[in-house]
Amino acid sequence: MRAPLSLLPLTLDNVVFQVGSRRIVDGISVTIERGPRTIVLGPNGAGKSVLLRLCHGLLEPTSGRIRWNAPELPGAPRRQAMVFQRPVLLRRSARRNVTYALKLAGFHGDEREERATEALRKVGLDALGDRYARTLSGGEQQRLALARVWALRPEILFLDEPTASLDPGATHEVERVIAAMHAAGTKIVMVTHSLGQAHRLGDEVLFMHQGRLVERAAAAQFFKRPASIEAAKFLEGELPW
Amino acid sequence: MQSCTNAHISDLNLRSGLPLNGIVDALAHAVGLVTTLDAKLVQIVGLSLRVSIAAVVLGSVIGLPLGAAIAVNEFRGKHALIVILNGLLGLPSVVVGLVVYLMLSRAGPLGSWGILFTPTAMVIAQTVLITPTLAALAQQLVADGWSEYREQLRSLGETKLGAAPTLLWDLRFSLVTIVLAGFGRAASEVGAVMIVGGNIDGVTRVMTTAIALETSKGDLPLALALGFILLSVVLALNAGAFVVKETARRRFG
Hints:
The complex is a heterodimer. Chain A has 8 helices and 9 strands. Chain A is of the alpha/beta class. Chain A has a domain at 89-153. In chain A, helix 4 runs parallel beside helix 5. By secondary structure, chain B is mostly helical. Chain B has a single domain (42-252), classed as MetI-like fold (Orthogonal Bundle). Chain B has helices at 2-16, 19-35, 39-72, 78-87, 93-104, 119-155, 160-170, 172-188, 191-197, 207-217, 220-252. The chains are: A alpha/beta, B mainly alpha. Chains A and B meet through helix 2 of A and helix 6 and helix 7 of B.
């Protein structure tokens, strides 16, 4: 059995997502490569979350194309994953939330249990595996959502403002897990509102404004010397975010 | 009809003076029937529970997955189907009784089964009556859940076929209320079981048909005793459901 071809790079070709007459994503073309942690920045309503959902296949573009190097086969286990701002956890134990995802991904028996154990340990929830997921604190719930995707070892992980409703301590924990997943070889694409977080976690920045991709740059360069007026204004806090 | 009603009233007045005293006497008698576990009463209550529990089990097995499947799938005519299902919440039990009667009567398509005027026929009639109720309520519940879970489940690669049972299981504590609503409807209806069961003493007589009959005969104590039991059963079940839901909410979040 040969190893499956990589999903990446992901290529967006003039992708538009329109609701009524409003273009939420307005003609984005970009190639997302393996490797660097990609941060999607931009003010509210820039279309960041919609862009993520388009990439992940939760929304269909109105026009344009989204191409994976080697697309997932319909019905086959998914090789990409997403963590949402507010995790949706099932009314069962933390551990069973992880094994549920593993079952969907086609893992059986011992391997399912071993992967769940390992994932819970990686996010520091090994002691809470038997607790009911919805009784965990907000930060623990988001870490459980990360354990759920970690267990799947996806090639690429999309994160939609995963720490937007967490306190600094919980945010720190979640950032630690994201960094560890990246170190383990998962491509990270994350939407965030927090410039500090983009600083800490970002290798490259995609800056969106009004549905368009205005700027793409290495993170260090973006924060030091943004090339676009919109990005400069955003960094100075003049654009609402 | 008019003369019949007048006869009852005069009958009551003759036996116990004012109707109010009659009711008090009947209440006392009813308590006696319940506390002594009157054989006839026990038999009627037992049959009622067996028929309605069977109907609610069958109705849940059919109705809940059906409602969930409608909720998570998109198809032509979905809205029309939901409107029809919701309309069937108010399905008159006598109409169900009539239709099932026609199906099961000797000349009907299922006449060869020979089950008209048996408890089986009553189970079928009550199942037909409450299945749309269970499906409509489950559809609403699962549709609400689906809007919350959809992105997450699709992200994890869940199919629509798999999403329905996953949602039903995740919403299991709320489903208890729906199933009990179905039981309440089945246990308290009189039209359908009267028509297809025939209210045969010792065979197909249940609480509701017995209440109707005993009231028209003027035997208020038995009717009242049955009425209290029916009410208590429904109240007890709902109290139980409340406890289950509250405990689950605290435990499972």
